[in-house]
Amino acid sequence: MVQQVQTHPVYRAINKPLAIWGVERRLFFLALVIGGATFNYFGSLISGLAMFIGLYGVARWATVTDVQMIRILMNAGRCRLEYDPGKRDPFGIEVLPQ
Question: Which are the contacts of 74, defined by CB distance < 8 A and separation ≥ 6?
Fold first, then answer.
């Protein structure tokens, strides 16, 4: 009996992150909001633009390096440590004569 090969089309848009100007959208809006807040706080357009451009550069690097980096970092704080050597009770070693 001959088996037929089945193919299933996978579209590229499904696997691509949603990005604005090459940056993941959440990071882009975070940089935009912090840049706007800096502008409002200091009253200087230059400081707002500098903050936005700096955060945009960091977000661009994070998106190019690993899209899921922010999700991993945010979830890492919720995980408890499996092993902490500082909390281990000391134990004694006894050598038996042969």
Answer: none
Which tokens hold the place of 72? Answer: 């991993």
Q: How many helices (H) and strands (E) does the chain have?
A: 4, 2
What sign for the dihedral angle of Cα 20, 25, 27, 32?
positive
6-62 residue pLDDT tens: 888 777 666 666 778 888 888 889 999 999 999 999 989 999 999 999 999 998 888
CB 31 within 8 A of CB 56: yes
Beta-bridge partner residues of 24: 19
